[in-house]
Amino acid sequence: MSSASITVVLAGPADRPALMRVLAEMSAYYDEFSGRKRLVAAAEALTAPANRAGPFCLIARAGDEPAGLVSLSGFFPARDFTWGLLLKDVFVLEAHRGTRAARALMRGAMRFAATGGYSCVEWGAGEENLRARAFFANLGVAPTARLFYRLEDEALAEAAHGLWPVPEEET
Predict the structure, then answer these.
(1) Could you tell me which of 95, 42, 93 has the C-alpha nearest to residue 69?
(2) Residue 64 CB burial class (10 angstroms; 0-12, 13-18, ≥19)
(3) Cβ-Cβ contacts under 8 Å for 139 (sequence gap 6 or more)
(4) What pLDDT score does 2 carry?
(5) Residue 143 per-residue DSSP state
């Protein structure tokens, strides 16, 4: 399949069934459990942005078939008190890898940012995700020295009550 056959559009409510197919494979790829109810909710959230912050989703198609997606969320403030865009995920279905669908999704994300008045696009890749890191390097985009931090699940709930992973006396 050639890259000319890949189209990328802003996903809307009519794209929810196709998004659910991509999200289901994405969930399996990352060894996450996402039942039908959660997939429906995710597809709805990705196609009903609340405001400039989103979330937004671009879907790639190869003909009538979904090929992948990129999810985006606006954030404020970015540099000089402008809006920035966080690229949360770019995912291509296994059957469409090597078709330049990921490149088309990235181009679509940059076009969305540029035409939407966002001043920058930021994204990350896990150190262990060598394929993604190589892909971004092949686009000519160098990583920044910025570190990201995350609290989730029980650690998040505990920190909300002031119970950090390392007690205050030790920091």
Answers:
(1) 93
(2) exposed
(3) 103, 106
(4) 45
(5) P
- How many whole angstroms separate alpha carbon 139 and alpha carbon 132? 11
> Is residue 73 exposed (0-12), middle (13-18) or buried (19+ Cβ within 10 Å)?
middle
Instruction: Tell me how far apart the alpha carbons of residues 3 and 62 are, in angstroms, rounded to a whole number.
Output: 9
Q: How far apart, in whole angstroms, are the C-alpha atoms of residue 121 and residue 78? A: 10
122, containing H or E segment: strand 121-122
pLDDT tens sequence for the chain (171 residues): 444 489 999 999 999 999 999 999 999 998 887 789 999 999 999 999 989 999 999 999 999 999 999 999 999 999 999 999 999 999 999 999 999 999 999 999 999 999 999 999 999 998 898 999 999 999 999 888 887 888 889 999 999 998 888 877 755
Cα 103 to its chain centre, rounded Å, is 14
Buried b (16+ CB within 10 A) or exposed e, 81-118: eebbbbbeebbbbeebeebbbbbbbbbbbeebbeeeeb
Q: At what angle do helices 16-29 and 36-46 cross, to 10 degrees?
A: 120
